Amino acid sequence: MKKIIIVANPTAGHHSQSRIARFTRHLAQAGLPASVAHTHYPGHATILARDAAESGLYSHIVAAGGDGTIAEVSAGMVGTSAILGILPLGSANVLAHELRIPFNEIRNAALIRAGHFTTIWPGYLHTQAGPQLFVQMASIGFDAHIVHTTSTRLKARIGRAAYAVSTLSSLLRYGLTEFTVLIDTVPHRATTVIVSKGSLYAGKYALTRHSAHKDKKFSVILFETSGKLALMKTVLSLFLGRIGRQKGVRTLTAATVQVPSPAAIPIQSDGDRKGFSPACLDISPSPLRVAVTPAG
């Protein structure tokens, strides 16, 4: 019999505890006993997932939370035979939208029961804090500054709208810094770089035409804009789904991305603050199995 463990972030989303309870109940009705382990501090989800994966007792380890929780759980089980389940509870839930994970607890439990999965290749962000796995995207520059300055209390109150508030504030206050980005060792200049495995941004907004989740490569979006007005137009084009046609924005593919700048440029990955440059990003040497609805 399959055994399930749910690694839950108790601070993620409104009504998260009632949704986890319903999800657990539906799993039990499907003949899948599930236990719940709550996280208590940053990085705890990785420890819980690693212990569960190494025990060999669980077919699925479910991340109940937002993209940051999913990344932490993934870091503990990447390269193992355990399958990552996702119960989306965060403010953006980008990976869930990307992989078309059901938000409905009944459909999500049925997905776990069916046992279907896809294999994806996450990325690693290397900074002075050490290597950190990410599953959807990382960024350096203006986009990361928004994450750094978004109030966690406000995000808990109004969800994704908190990022809109922070974006407006950042457009006025952030000082653009041009830096060198080495894309597969080839130098480029930019004021912001987004390194993405998926095709979506901040929920359902289109960032690229194609997802790179199943490939050992990244999509790299370079913002070459240097003025506040140009940056404002670029940000607007992103939320209007026109980023690919915006002047001053280039999209490339790469297996490695380096930002050697010592100028303390902000970094984020999967919606969490990750310090400042310098940084290097590369593909995980091991894949990750993720429970998904089969295509077709």
From TrEMBL:
Keywords: ATP-binding, Kinase, Nucleotide-binding, Transferase. The keyword Transferase applies. It comes from the Bacteria. GO terms for molecular function: ATP binding; kinase activity. One of its GO terms (cellular component) is plasma membrane. Residues 1-111 form the DAGKc domain. This is Diacylglycerol kinase family lipid kinase. It comes from Gluconacetobacter takamatsuzukensis.
